[in-house]
TrEMBL record:
SUPFAM superfamilies xrefs: CO dehydrogenase molybdoprotein N-domain-like, Molybdenum cofactor-binding domain
Protein name: Molybdopterin-dependent oxidoreductase
InterPro entries found in the cross-reference section: Ald_Oxase/Xan_DH_a/b, Ald_Oxase/Xan_DH_a/b_sf, Ald_Oxase/xanthine_DH-like, AldOxase/xan_DH_MoCoBD1, AldOxase/xan_DH_MoCoBD2, AldOxase/xan_DH_Mopterin-bd_sf
Organism in which the protein naturally occurs: Streptomyces shaanxiensis
Start and end residues of each Aldehyde oxidase/xanthine dehydrogenase a/b hammerhead domain: 39-145
Start and end residues of each stretch annotated as Disordered: 1-26
UniProt biased composition (Low complexity): 1-18
Ranges in coiled-coil conformation: none
PANTHER family: XANTHINE DEHYDROGENASE, XANTHINE DEHYDROGENASE SUBUNIT D-RELATED
Origin: domain of life: Bacteria
Length: 769
């Protein structure tokens, strides 16, 4: 690493001492960075340092919609200690960026389209100087009326050269004239969730002697970030290097490129390393959020409760730019009917631009919003039919071999009925005692509830589904190299560890395949072949699959000389607990002896079977695989105050295969807890496009005190034959399902419709009791 910037870069991750840990797949191998993160010694991106460091600050728009009439940087440039000021005029390459579509300017030039859009960036000798200089850039605006209602975006003047409509999917499946004996309708709204990443968004840019630049970032998709940066800087990709460092965890697109790209520009302009650490306010303004969504539903069912037809309109608010809204809309439309058999479905989906905060990839995007709506519809149907809500769901549960509304046959395991039965039959928690000592168990916390007699308990259900990997023809490929030398194995793969456990899984794969205890996973940078983004379970599937294939190739190299010597094939040899034995017991030696100082290595790729885009009627085999979850929620609601306490969430999930029990349980619990935030507290509010309270006092995240008892009732291990190891993604589907289950339980407790997330107190108040 140039310019001594290595002082805070994540070191290669090594397994703990072999006599202290279990080995191989199926064992609860601890994460290599767990101790450093718990002790506070993990080097985050905000800890980066380099000799001759400059500090950066970004000037952002105070308006959600305005025309820029002039930008005067002269005062900022003249300030002592300021080394550079850059605007749109200083972008030598492509002025546009974007994850799904390049439609977002690096710096606004003629118009600003959302509150917080970058306009200029400053590099200075001190962070305070940089901030003061950014504030000294004078921008003259002609303030325009913002378009903040996504329904008005269809008729409003175009906010972008590409227009206001990003994508429209009209899904048509079955008979449009089909009708049921029972019809229920509903209008639902889902708020804007912020990913609220742990750790500050930060980065360091270091100029290279060849005129290129190195970016040290907590990136979750380094090769894509490199390619966008290179296009912005007008450089070949080989002259831009992204080094992944200090990723504390991610449940979405962690890093805002609106500050990544200015870093490199400033470093190239000044010839010095430049660092930027975003404030929490800047994070709220800059990075993308979950799409606020408006949903209209009409469900038809026969007299027995079997679904006949589902009609829906889904409107996603993308904010100012497209980002990944097209992908989110595809998931929302495809899963609009949920994990139920629906012979006739007619879904209209739109994603539109507004002047609201930007939306993009957040765990379970699209699927989470529709899950809340279709599960509310199932509750309405059950009530109208006088049927138990769980029983109604069982009558319609999807199974392997059924067909989705997109026309795709479900070929993966889909034990939806089994999951629902497991949570339905699980014993309910005991009722709280009506004594002062136990008042802290009531909604609102200690002394926060009204009279205990005003508390009502409700039980509700949620069934959710998500797709795994990319969709609609995305080329999901990953490359990995496994090297063995001096009895130590090293894995090189550009799959970023974002908390999903890839580095732990990679070590387990190599341990099991090669019988080697000490396995290191090398740090990630763009000198390695691409592995893609860390989302939708792709690193467990695709990157884990690449590691497995490379490890098996090394295994063959290791065993071939022995097999040749004893006149047998390598398939007749096995490696167990570091020992190589033959089927007949003739051969028995250790892996160390067989290596005998040799250096072995192999590189392999993993690419799942291809998918196809949805056609003009929303039909197509768009998804590689799917994962399912059932949750039963138990809540206590103070019907006078509207406060809600989630008592227990019982969960059953199909996981394909448990690769690391402790890690899997932690991922499920984290996903469920994130869903509690969506259901009850998390909503990044804005007024006419201006974000209100962009901080963690105005945006309420659930804490450990808000986390309910989470009971993992059943994990169905029916292996998906097309997936490496047979495993499925586990963390997204609990996020998707738990808000719907909690809303269902609040409906059961109050009799109120609960058609908005997060649930507002007034929605849980019952009058006339």
């Amino acid at each position: 690493m140039s310019n001594e910037a290595a002082t805070a870069t994540t070191a290669a991750e090594a397994a703990p001492a072999p006599d202290q840990i279990p080995h191989g797949l199926g064992a609860s191998l601890p994460a290599a960075d767990a101790r450093a993160k718990t002790e506070g010694t993990f080097p985050y991106a905000a800890d980066l340092w380099a000799e001759g460091l400059l500090w950066a600050a970004v000037l952002r728009s105070p308006h959600p919609h305005a025309r820029i009439t002039s930008i005067d940087t002269s005062h900022a440039r003249e300030m002592p200690g300021v080394r550079a000021v850059v605007t749109h005029e200083d972008v030598p390459g492509s002025p546009l960026l974007g994850r799904g579509k390049a439609d977002r300017p690096v710096f606004a030039s003629e118009v600003v389209r959302h509150h917080g859009e970058p306009i200029a960036a400053v590099a200075a000798d001190h962070p305070d100087t940089a901030r003061l200089a950014a504030a000294a850039v004078i921008v003259e605006y002609e303030v325009l009326d913002p378009v903040t209602d996504p329904e008005q975006a269809f008729e409003a003047e175009p906010l972008h050269p590409d227009g206001n409509l990003i994508r429209h999917i009209p899904l048509r499946h079955g008979d449009p004239d089909a009708a049921g004996d029972i019809v229920v309708e509903g209008l639902y709204r889902i708020g804007r969730q912020d990913p609220a990443p742990i750790g500050a968004e930060a980065g360091l840019a270091v100029p290279r002697p060849d005129g290129g630049v190195e970016l040290y970032l907590a990136s979750t998709d380094p090769h894509t970030d490199r390619d966008r940066a290179a296009a912005c800087y007008g450089l070949e990709p080989e002259r831009v290097k992204v080094v992944v460092t200090g990723v504390p965890g991610a449940t979405a697109d962690r890093e805002d490129q609106g500050f990544q790209l200015p870093l490199g520009l400033l470093a190239l302009k000044t010839g010095c390393p430049v660092k930027l650490t975003a404030t929490r306010e800047e994070s709220f303004l800059g990075h993308t959020h979950r799409h606020p969504t408006l949903l209209r539903y009409r469900h038809h069912a026969d007299a027995e409760g079997k679904l006949v037809k589902v009609e829906a309109q889904i409107l996603l608010d993308a904010g100012a730019y497209a980002d990944t809204s097209s992908d989110a809309l595809a998931a929302a439309v495809a899963f609009a009917c949920g994990p139920y058999v629906v012979p006739n479905a007619f879904i209209e989906g739109w994603a539109v631009r507004t002047n609201n905060p930007p939306s993009g990839h957040v765990r379970g995007e699209g699927a989470m919003q529709v899950c809340a709506a279709y599960e509310a519809q199932m509750d309405k149907l059950a009530k109208k039919l006088g049927v138990d809500p769980a029983e109604l769901r069982l009558r319609n549960a999807l199974a392997t071999g059924d067909v989705l509304p997109t026309g795709q046959t479900v070929t993966c395991p889909a034990p939806v009925a089994e999951l629902l039965q497991a949570v339905r039959d699980y014993p309910l928690p005991a009722l709280p005692k009506d004594t002062p000592e136990d008042e802290w168990l009531l909604p609102g916390g200690p002394e926060g509830a009204g009279e205990p007699g005003a508390v009502r308990r409700g039980v509700g259900y949620g069934l959710g589904m998500v797709h795994m990997l990319g969709a609609e023809g995305a080329d999901e490929v990953s490359t990995a190299t496994v090297k063995v030398h001096d009895g130590v194995a090293t894995v090189l793969c550009a799959a970023v560890e974002t908390g999903q456990g890839f580095t732990t899984l990679a070590r387990q794969i190599v341990q099991e395949t090669l019988g080697i205890d000490e396995v290191h996973v090398a740090p990630v940078d763009t000198d390695q072949p691409p592995a893609g983004a860390g989302c939708r379970g792709r690193h467990t599937w695709v990157s884990g699959g690449a590691v497995e294939r490379a490890a098996k190739m090394v295994r063959t190299q290791l065993l071939q000389p022995l097999a040749h010597k004893f006149g047998m094939s390598t398939e007749l040899l096995q490696i167990t607990d570091g020992k190589i034995t033959s089927y007949d017991g003739v051969l028995s030696t250790t892996v160390t002896e067989a290596l005998d100082g040799k250096e072995l290595w192999a590189t392999a790729q993993c690419r799942p079977h291809p998918t196809e885009p949805l056609n003009d009627t929303g039909q197509g085999d768009a998804f590689v695989g799917m994962s399912f979850c059932a949750i039963r929620a138990v809540v206590d609601v103070d019907i006078e105050l509207g406060s809600v306490r989630v008592v227990e969430l019982a969960l059953a999930q199909d996981v394909g295969r448990v690769l690391n029990p402790a890690q899997l349980e932690a991922r499920i619990e984290a996903g469920v807890t994130q869903g509690v935030g969506i259901a009850l507290t998390e909503n990044l509010r804005s007024a006419r496009g201006l974000i209100r309270h962009p901080d963690l006092t105005g945006y309420s995240l659930p804490t450990a005190l808000d986390a309910p008892d989470i009971r993992i009732v059943k994990l169905v291990e029916e292996r998906d034959v097309v997936a490496p190891f047979g495993a499925k993604a586990v963390s997204a589907v609990p996020v998707v399902t738990s808000p719907a289950a909690i809303a269902s339980a609040v409906r059961a407790a109050t009799g109120r419709p609960v058609n908005r997330l997060p649930i507002r107190p007034q929605a849980a108040v019952v009058t006339g009791q």
